[in-house]
Design goal:
Largest sheet: 8 strands, parallel
Number of domains: 1
Structural class: alpha/beta
Strand content: 5-15%
Shape: globular
Bound molecules: zinc ion
Distance between the termini: 36 Å
CATH superfamily: Histone deacetylase domain
CATH class: Alpha Beta
CATH architecture: 3-Layer(aba) Sandwich
Helix content: 25-40%
Strand order of the largest sheet: 2-1-5-10-9-6-7-8
Number of strands: 10
Radius of gyration: 19 Å
Length: 364
């Protein structure tokens, strides 16, 4: 059982000053993994990324967006100053190059999973991607790593069914926009499960249950907006009631996870109540589905997470689950959602979501 970990120092070169999405996020994770001797364990393999090709970036992005990122990176180089793509999204002289490696790290891990060199993997990459759509970078994100990964599986690897699970605290609006009408590749079938803090209370303000996709993507976008303060138990309800039955029907060949760790109760950008073991406990369930239908093929890619010591521990826990070492998790005191919140999820949100999906899925 080998779990791949994608990392390269190039990801630190997307260096954008005092921004919360800082290179210290990855430094903290790598230091924590090293101090816990993860890289001395033969069950974990460090994977070096490659550059993604421009044709691969174009699977989901318009050429104008690619040119914009390259030109602004060049401007940062010439002026020796950090530049901005929008109010939130900053660019250094190396952002363009780091972004190509961020996508390429995911593609390299996909290759190694499909060839059997590793069984699953975690891409510790920056910049993140899930807020960027085909024509616009947003929310600290440059190229949409996970969306390109899905298209790569369809177009170059002959995989036909992919599930994306996005557990970042912010709605993955870029990924949803890109695939709202399904994959543009002929045979690719994609399903997206997106859990996040309710868009009425957090950026980007989307991801409601009525957003279910259209055309080829109809019924394949499945949003779960959680009220503020939802704890680890809230995501298990989503898995048991919605994800598990749908995936049993869909039978994915590969599972891609957009993993943000900004659901932690201490994260300063958000208002959720997850613990450091919350993502890993969710992942355990996802992994069982992957073992059943997808030959254990899971690739996790890093999105957000701004309480960097907590994030490092949560990433470590996920790596242990990927490698079937559930007994080695680092635990903090468990947290539960308030009963009124659980009642809202069980009695209102879940029934309403099943109602929206009932015409697309036999399980409802
Ligand atoms: Zn986020």
């Amino acid at each position: 059982m080998t779990t791949g970990i994608v990392y390269d120092d190039i990801y630190l070169e997307h260096r954008i000053g005092t921004h919360v999405e800082s290179h210290f996020r990855l430094i903290e994770i790598m230091d924590f993994l090293k101090s816990n001797k993860i890289f001395e364990n033969p069950n974990f393999k460090l994977i070096k990324p490659r550059l993604a090709s421009l044709d691969q970036i174009k699977y989901v992005h318009e050429e104008s967006l690619i040119n914009e990122v390259r030109e602004i990176s060049d401007l940062a180089e010439k002026t020796a100053r950090i530049q901005s793509l929008d109010m939130d999204t900053s660019v250094s002289s190396k952002t363009y190059e780091a972004s190509l490696y961020s996508v390429g790290g995911n593609l390299q891990a996909i290759d190694e999973i499909l060839s059997g060199n590793i069984q699953n993997g975690f891409a510790l990459v920056r910049p993140p991607g899930h807020h960027s759509n085909s024509f616009r970078c947003a929310g600290f994100c440059i190229f949409n790593n996970i969306a390109i990964g899905a298209e790569y599986l369809f177009r170059e690897k002959n995989v036909k069914k992919v599930a994306i699970i996005d557990w970042d605290c912010h709605h993955g609006n870029g990924t949803q926009d890109i695939f709202y009408h399904g994959s543009k590749s002929k045979e690719g079938q994609l399903i997206i499960f997106n859990s996040h803090q309710d868009g009425r209370t957090l950026y980007p303000g989307s991801g409601f249950i009525g957003e279910t996709g259209s055309g080829k993507g109809e019924g394949k976008i499945i949003n779960y907006p959680m009220p503020p303060n939802a704890a680890d138990d809230a995501i298990i309800i989503y898995f048991d009631e919605i994800i598990s039955p749908i995936l049993s029907e869909f039978k994915p060949e590969f599972i891609l996870i957009s993993a943000g760790f900004d659901t932690h109760w201490t994260d300063e950008l958000t208002n959720m109540g997850w613990t450091i073991q919350g993502p890993a406990n969710y992942l355990k369930r996802i992994k069982k589905v992957a073992e059943e239908y997808a030959n254990d093929r899971i690739l996790i890619t890093l999105e957000g997470g701004y309480q960097i010591d907590k994030q490092a521990r949560a990433v470590y826990n996920c790596l242990r689950v990927l490698n079937n070492e559930e007994e080695n998790l680092i635990l903090e005191k468990s947290r539960s959602s308030e009963q009124a919140l659980l009642d809202y999820l069980n009695k209102k949100l879940i029934p309403a979501l099943k109602d929206k999906l009932s015409s697309y899925w036999n399980c409802f």
